[in-house]
Amino acid sequence: MKVSIIIPNYNTWDLVKRNITACLKYDDDLIEEIIVVDDCSPTLNYIHFPSKVKIIRNETNLHYTKTVNIGLKNAISDILVLLDSDAYPTKPFIKDLILQFEDLNIGCIGFKTINDLGDDSGNFMYFPSAYGLIAGQQIHKFLKKYDRRRNRKIIPFSCAVSFRKNCLKDLNYFDDYFPVLDADIDLCYRIYESKWKLIYHPEIEIYHVGGNSIPKDSKRVLLFYKSRWQLLKKFHLIPFPIITKSLILSRLLLETLIIKLKIILYTDIRPYYKLKLKGRKELIEMVKHFN
């Protein structure tokens, strides 16, 4: 049995080369193909790849989810490995992966990711709740360690994960209603609700620290809130939508007042806080239209 590796790319050809080189170095004999789906990068491919590497180029920019689905649907193997362009293996892993997939009920296996020091860089989360949106990302990061919900569902991120193709076919792949964020959370939740099993296998380690795909700015914050609201709404996990929206808006308005105060106090970095204020106002207007 061999696997297909899928790598989405947007203008990160050097990272793609590093990823492919590492994959072939450790597991060439167990790799059927490597599919790179280029999301209409402004820079065309200038690297000569081995023959088992297939390049698919989108004619227009389709964003992450549709790009990944193209690669997954075109793959010919029963086991599919999805890696971000800036991820790469640091040792052989496919033999172990194939052994895990001998359990025919398993549809998805998540991997551990590590940083430059070999420490866990965090490649999973637990399924979110509306409380995260109410508290905000920073406060929720602090409070989530006290989350004692039973039967919390572990969600491996799509930067380093694997699937059985029949599982993806059954569930119709990633939902491109989520163009960038939360498509992996949505798919994992649907796997849990299906006949398929999902496991997290930390014995497989992939290097990945992130930060090369989505800019961390106000647009990302807008995208996060929109995607997360729609995700929770899809699975009926917003028990009181009007109250939840009001609580989110109350927190955002308080944050806006704090930012305005900082604009007055910190004159040397005033442009930074003015930009944050603009982003908060845009976010408030968007949240007002949540339903």
Please give the structural blueprint.
Layout lengths: L2 E7 L3 H15 L3 E8 L14 E5 L5 H12 L4 E5 L4 E2 L4 H7 L5 E9 L9 E3 L3 H6 L1 H7 L10 E3 L3 E5 H7 L11 H10 L4 E11 L10 H17 L6 H25 L4 H19 L3
Parallel strand pairs: 1-2, 1-4, 2-3, 6-10
Antiparallel strand pairs: 4-9, 5-10, 6-9, 7-8
Structure description:
The chain has two domains: 205 residues, Spore Coat Polysaccharide Biosynthesis Protein SpsA, Chain A (Alpha-Beta Complex); 71 residues. The model has no long low-confidence stretch (mean pLDDT 94). The strands form two sheets. It has an eight-stranded mixed beta sheet, sandwiched between helices. Strands 7-8 form a two-stranded antiparallel sheet. It is globular and about 60 Å long. The chain has ten helices and ten strands. The longest helix has 25 residues. 43% of the residues lie in helices and 20% in strands. The N and C termini lie far apart (47 Å). With 291 residues, the chain is an alpha/beta fold. It comes from Pedobacter psychrophilus. Pfam families: Glycos_transf_2 (PF00535). One of its GO terms (molecular function) is glycosyltransferase activity.
